[in-house]
Write a structure and sequence with these properties.
CATH class: Mainly Beta
Largest sheet: 8 strands, antiparallel, barrel
Number of helices: 6
Mean pLDDT: 83
Strand order of the largest sheet: 1-2-4-5-6-8-9-10
Low-confidence stretches: none
Strand content: over 45%
Structural class: alpha+beta
Number of strands: 10
Helix content: 10-25%
CATH topology: Porin
Number of domains: 1
Order of helices and strands: HEHEEHEHHEHEEEEE
């Protein structure tokens, strides 16, 4: 992971440098913590299957930092009243999520009548991801009015880009996981390359990738200097090995992605 953390550190330093420029311009800052359940959508299980979607769930936690354009830290006053300042915030985030993965659905159900599918019953995986990135959040209602208790709830939508360091793992209860036959399912191997030893569909090495993030949520005004937050995030990775599995079944039509329901606490620094 040495290279990955160096890359993440560089990005973090760059983000902090940008934040310092914003601070010098007088914008205020907010910090917070987030946590909640993650539903990981991967090559484990069956597409659009409720058991898969509900079974492959994990946990995510993170630290968030906001640049608030509506308020100036240098004078403790509101900034110029523009549409952008009153309706947008910049969100920087460092987060981690982990999900235990199992196979569910029709393929596993066939194991009771066909031994070829028993491998899926015993095969498990783990998605383990460290994220750093930035999102732009849009608040349809006035940020100024929300901060002055004009209303209790401030809904928002956001979009951004994250850099992800992933470190998946896999295992089997059939014996030595390094024995390829213990983790072999015939459907994973393409017809063009039937030799299982030459078809790398299992991965336990770390790597990095980019991802796009979108979310919808709301804040609740708790005190003058604090908010509660809830948002539902969708994150799509530009890689299909984040879960440690990249098979050749026809159901493998997309890269790995996740849905994360966040609950957070936000504190205003200025």
């Amino acid at each position: 992971m040495t290279l990955n953390f160096k890359q993440l550190t560089f990005i973090f330093i760059l983000m902090m440098g940008i934040n310092e420029v914003h601070a010098q311009l007088g914008f205020s800052h907010e910090i917070g913590v987030i946590a909640g359940p993650v539903a990981f959508q991967s090559d484990f299980g069956v597409r659009n299957d409720f058991e898969t979607n509900s079974g492959n769930t994990g946990i995510g936690i993170g630290l968030v930092h906001y640049i608030n354009f509506a308020y100036r830290a240098d004078c403790n006053c509101y900034s110029t009243d523009t549409f952008f300042n009153d309706h947008f915030k910049l969100r920087n985030e460092i987060s981690w999520n982990k999900t235990k993965l199992n196979h569910f659905g029709e393929w596993v159900d066939r194991a009771s009548t066909n031994s070829s599918y028993e491998t899926l019953v015993h095969h498990t995986g783990t998605a383990n991801n460290f994220d750093i990135g930035t999102q732009i959040e849009f608040f349809p209602k006035s940020i100024r009015d929300f901060q002055s208790f004009g209303y209790s709830f401030a809904p928002f939508i956001s979009f951004g880009v994250h850099f992800t360091a992933y470190n998946p793992d896999y295992d089997t209860t059939l014996g030595d996981r390094n024995n390829v036959r213990n983790n072999y399912f015939p459907g994973w191997v393409s017809a063009a390359n039937p030799n299982v030893n030459e078809d790398p569909f299992l991965f336990d090495e770390n790597g990095t990738t980019w991802s796009v993030v979108g979310s919808i949520g709301t804040r609740y005004k708790l005190t003058v200097l604090s908010d509660l937050m809830i948002d539902l995030r969708w994150q799509y990775f530009f890689n299909d090995q984040v879960d440690g599995l990249d098979h050749n079944l026809t159901s493998n039509k997309a890269n790995d992605w996740l849905v994360w329901l966040n609950f957070g606490y936000i504190y205003y620094l200025n």
